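name: query_chain
kind: protein
chains: 1
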Amino acid sequence: MASTYGEDASKSALRSAYEAVETQLAPAHAERVDREVRIHFTAMAAYRDASLILAYVTYRNEMDTTELIKKAWKDGKRVAVPVCDRGKLVFYEVDTLEGMRAGSRGVLEPDPTECTPVSPDDFEGSICLVPGLVFDAEGYRIGYGAGYYDNFLADYPGLKVGLVRTLRISSNPLPHDDHDIPMDVLVSDGSVWVCDRTA
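structure:
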C-alpha cells in the first residue's frame, strides 16, 4: 500500500494501491460489508429527514449503491443520478435503474432525454452520496481523478456523505488541493463518522 506521506503520497499512487486492494476482496465479504454500510446510512436521522438523495451508480470497485437506491425508493424518497455534461455534473431524477447507459468515462448514467433534471432549489436538505476510493478522517477523498464531484460540491448546500468500506479509510491525512471538497460524514461498515476539520 502506498503511504499517505512522503514521495509515494501522490494521488495516483494511492489510487492504484487502493484499487489493487479492492480486487482481492471476496464478493461475499464485499456484499456483507456493503450491507452494513447501508444499515448505518439508513439509520441516520439525516437520511430519515431527507426527501432527495443524490446518488451515484457504482463504478468499478466502488461500494455497491444499487440496493441503497432501491431502499431509498421504498422509503418514499426521490433519487437523482448524475450525468457529466461538458465537464459538469447534472443530476437527473430517476425511478428505475433500467436503461442506464455508459457515459463518456464508462460510468452508468441516466438518459437526459428521458429524465427531469433536479433543480438546485431542491438541494437544500438533501444528501449527496459521493464516490471515492479512499477517505481520511477529515473527509477528504481520492476518487478517479476527474474532479467533477469537487466542482459540483463547491456550491452544494446539502449534506455530503462518503460511503466507505473500513479498509478504505486512511489512518493518515490524504493529500488534497485547495479545490478538493471534504465530506461532512463518512458512513462505513463499522461506524458513522462526523468529519472533524477544526484541528
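note: The chain has one domain: 11-194.
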